[in-house]
Amino acid sequence: MQGSLTIFGYTASHISVVIGAIILTGLNAMADQRLIDDFRNDPQGQWRFLADTVMGGVSTGRVVFKNENGAAYVHMTGRVSTENNGGFIQVRRQLSSRPSSATKGIRLIARGNGQRYFIHLRTSGTVLPWQYYQAEFNVTGTWQEYRLPLSAFKRSGRMLAATPSPASVRSVAIVAYGRDHTADIQVREIGFY
Predict the structure, then answer these.
(1) 122 and 137: one domain?
(2) Which end of the chain is least crowded, N or C, by CB within 10 Å?
(3) Measuring CA to CA, which residue among 174, 189, 190 is closest to residue 78?
(4) Pair (50, 121) in one structural domain
(5) For 100-145, what is each residue's pLDDT tens digit?
(6) Do 29 and 42 have their domain in common?
(7) Cα 131 to Cα 5, 77, 120, 151, 176, distances in angstroms
(8) pTM of the predicted model over 0.85
């Protein structure tokens, strides 16, 4: 073609297609890195149910993975009891890679029984079993998006940094905690923003 720009034998249109593909691949990789789970791909192998019974408490619960109208989700139910120094049930996932330093917080889509729930983060600095960072949110009976900035996460003790560092986050947990109540929460997506 006359008047067409060529570099190393490639036209400008070929180069722009390749650059576009590279940018799109990078954006998809970033999106995948920010998503912790949408519960479609082996969630049973990724998430672990824990209750205060590991330390002598008496709370009970269970986790099941379900699908509704093509949307997968985790469903945690149970009875949280503060008897015997207890008071929690949770479903936790270890992260295979750390979020980027540009991470602002946790984003999730959830519904439930109108109760208060928490997200717990464990970091490289939370070495003891009772150390974590937590942020609360209140669910309703319909699916809603929640954004919990890292600045909203409270440390469980003074020995921890005031705010969790994104690059130090090792695990994320969905938690029913701190008071006697019936837990019923469903989460269909959780990730970083």
Answers:
(1) yes
(2) N
(3) 174
(4) yes
(5) 999 999 999 999 999 999 999 999 999 998 999 999 999 999 999 9
(6) no
(7) 60, 24, 10, 17, 16
(8) no
